[in-house]
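Format notes (please read before filing issues)

Several people have asked whether sequences and structure tokens are stored in separate files. They are not. Every record keeps both together, in the order shown below: the sequence lines, then the token lines. Line labels are part of the format and must not be stripped during preprocessing.
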Amino acid sequence: MKRTFLFLLTCLCVFLSSSAQSIKPDHDTTYYKSYKGTIILRAYLSRKYSVLKLVPPGNIENVSYHANTTASLGLGFTYKSLSLSYSHGLSFLESDTKKGRTSFTDLQLRLYKRKWTIDAIASFSRGYYLTPQGVGTANGLGYYIRPDVGTQIVGLGIYRVLNDKKFSYGAALSQNAWQKKSAGSFLIGAEACYIAANGDSSFIPNNIDSNYYKDGIRKMHLFEGGPSLGYAYMLVIAENYFLMGSFNAGINYSYSREIGNDKGSKVGVWANYIFRLAAGYNATKWNLSASWLGARINTEGRPTLYKYLFNTGGYRLVYARRFAIGHKMKRILN
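Then the structure lines:
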């Protein structure tokens, strides 16, 4: 009887040991703690920006179209690696009305998994003004306002986090992990985007470039895609305070098409980039952080040989709270 009991006890120990091995964490828990089994709710204040810069081939002055955006108040939700958010502009914080009005719609899907990060965006804006002030106006005063000029941007980026055992990409950006030690990782992947800019008449006024104005270029379509390489690093101080930076550069195939009185297309290769900066305080149940995301995409038109630089991004101040959930709620969410 004693031998039987010892045999059963040994079998139980072996079973428990094998079970413990089967649920072994998929990352180094001394570096970061994952919150993929919790619901994360966040409130944030944000402001987005969109700039279209036109660089002529000669000695003509560069001009930039800016969207006149307002600050927005938003709410967000994260479960596991999926983050969704919604924001609404605060009208009482409206920017200078002398710069015109901009209607702005921005949709984002962020997936910050342990090994992969996926960013999908769709941004649509209409209503821009030219800088510097006075450029393009008849009397050289005020801002040249173009309520008819709009841009449409649709993009997708997929990156592999190589050091996923010690570095969490989502810890600073979606609050689905707590990075407790400093670590970094190389990022490899690919990105693709489609951009369109359009207006009712020439982008460049006659008093800036008469040749461009005569060509009547009022539309630009651009498709770019290619491989991307980057690096991300998070500096952690006393476990709770963090500073994260990420930079990706891509060598992209580009197809652009200018449309005016005539049409022309051009194929080329351009270098583009996307960066992220974040800083804040992380604790077991909550997170307070500020972040800045920006991207630049370049191309050149034909027949004008103008360079078009699209800069887009935004700033965000976030308070996030983590909530533990039961098995029943987990099954529903899954």
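For reference, the curators noted about this record: Confidence is low (pLDDT under 50) at residues 11-22. The domain at 38-333 is CATH 2.40.128 (Lipocalin).
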